[in-house]
Design goal:
Length: 241
């Protein structure tokens, strides 16, 4: 069972540390930074991501984390994200500096991922998501979390319609051998049939799994329970809430 527990901890680490398939093209990044009048010392280059827009010609969604503050320890920093649409050459079509600050300290900001799902939130409006993944450093108290913000292009900028909504989390407390308890929550966004203020309601389906591990006569016994719950986010005062 020790092997199973180690695998569980490895999954927590991978939860927010997965290798990105959305790495930035270096030539395009250079052009973008020149247009933003930023150099590489002012961004977290390892967190920059891009993804081709599935519903637009010659268009890429780009996330550039700009450093707000940074300590001597490289892992302690705060960023704000530039959300962009560029063409293949890196020429900026849409630009938005998200005012929300994201911190990396005891809980490490591990990666960003662009989600271009079918978020048709209103007539002729398709949004996309930017997911931020975090992971804690404590082995006895493992922790990971993923949050999503959603945007849609409007004229030469963006409208932000969802701010850092938690989509998944993993928490636990154990003796690093067997005995302990873990909880994993995973949420899914479902486009509802109802609308509020002409924007489609977002139904959130959350699956919660609780795992109890107990050592019995040298063997690690595992018991799992799960439950499913729902909530609905409605569009009010310019945001889903």
């Amino acid at each position: 069972m020790e092997k199973k527990i180690s695998l569980f901890i490895l999954m927590i680490c991978l939860f927010s540390g997965r290798v990105s398939a959305q790495d930035m093209d270096s030539i395009r990044l250079t052009t973008i930074l020149k247009n933003l009048k930023l150099d590489k010392t002012k961004i977290r280059e390892e967190l920059c991501v891009e993804k081709k827009m599935p519903n637009a010609e010659d268009s890429y969604i780009v996330v550039i984390p700009m450093i707000v503050s940074q300590e001597e320890e490289d892992y302690v920093f705060t960023v704000k994200n530039y959300i962009l649409i560029t063409d293949e050459n890196g020429v900026i079509k849409n630009k938005y500096l998200d005012p929300t600050e994201l911190n990396s300290d005891a809980v490490d900001l591990r990666s960003f991922t662009i989600d271009t799902g079918l978020y048709n939130i209103s007539t002729n409006i398709r949004a996309f998501g930017v997911k931020a993944d975090f992971v804690g450093s404590s082995k006895p108290n493992p922790y990971a979390s993923g949050t999503i913000s959603m945007y849609y292009p409007e004229e030469k900028t963006f409208k932000k319609v969802l701010d850092q909504f938690e989509m998944d989390s993993t928490t636990g407390e154990w003796d690093t051998r067997c005995n302990g308890e873990f909880t994993e929550d995973v949420s899914y966004i479902i486009m509802d049939t109802s609308k509020t203020n002409n924007f489609t309601d977002l139904k959130i389906k959350k699956i919660s799994v609780n795992t109890m591990n107990t050592e019995v006569k040298g063997d690690c016994k595992q018991k799992k329970t799960s439950k499913t719950s729902y909530k609905t986010l409605k569009f009010k005062n310019g945001r889903y809430q």
